[in-house]
Amino acid sequence: MKNQIDENQSTIDEQLDAQLDTESSPAEDKSEPLNKQPVKRQENTTPEKDLKILSVGDWMITILFYIIPVVNLIMMAIWAFSSRGNIHRRNLSRALLLWWIIILVAYVVAMTVAGFTILDIFRGKA
Questions:
Q1: Confidence category of residue 23, pLDDT binned at 50, 70, 90
Q2: From CA 104, how far away is CA 65, in angstroms rounded?
Q3: What is the average per-residue pLDDT within 23-27?
């Protein structure tokens, strides 16, 4: 029985060796380089101005725009969806817009559950 297993194993080994000999490996084939294109440097698509750290004055102006009603939503939208401009201000604007959306949805759900409509708020008590 053991001889039978040894013979089968040697037959399998011979078949694998024959198969490996017929296949060409990439390491042996040195006639063509693997990568024909020259290596390109990764270019920085974001200008240095977009990555600069905002100073205290820049943050003061940004916060000033955020505390003025209606202007804050307009400026948040401009800064959030602009492809140019400071990346830190852009990320802050996107986060604040998401908070506006979350709060608005929560308000609508709360008013719906309570049975109020927006018109009831403006009408006052009759």
A1: low
A2: 20
A3: 53
Q: How far is CA 10 from CA 2, 5, 6, 64, in A?
A: 12, 9, 6, 82
Q: Is 54 helix (H, G, I), strand (E, B) or coil?
A: coil
- Between these two residues, 107 and 13, which has the higher pLDDT value? 107
Q: How far apart are CA 15 and CA 10, in angstroms?
A: 9
CA 12 to each of CA 5, 9, 27, 48, 54: distance values in angstroms, whole numbers, following the listed order? 11, 5, 25, 62, 69
State pLDDT tens for residues 50-92. 888 899 999 999 999 999 999 999 999 999 999 888 999 999 9
Q: Is the pLDDT of residue 12 over 70?
A: yes
Residues 91, 83: Cα–Cα separation, whole Å? 11
Can you give the length of the chain in residues?
Answer: 126
Q: Are 48 and 78 in contact (CB under 8 A)?
A: no
CA angle 45, 47, 50 (to 5 degrees): 115
Q: What is the pTM of this model?
A: 0.55
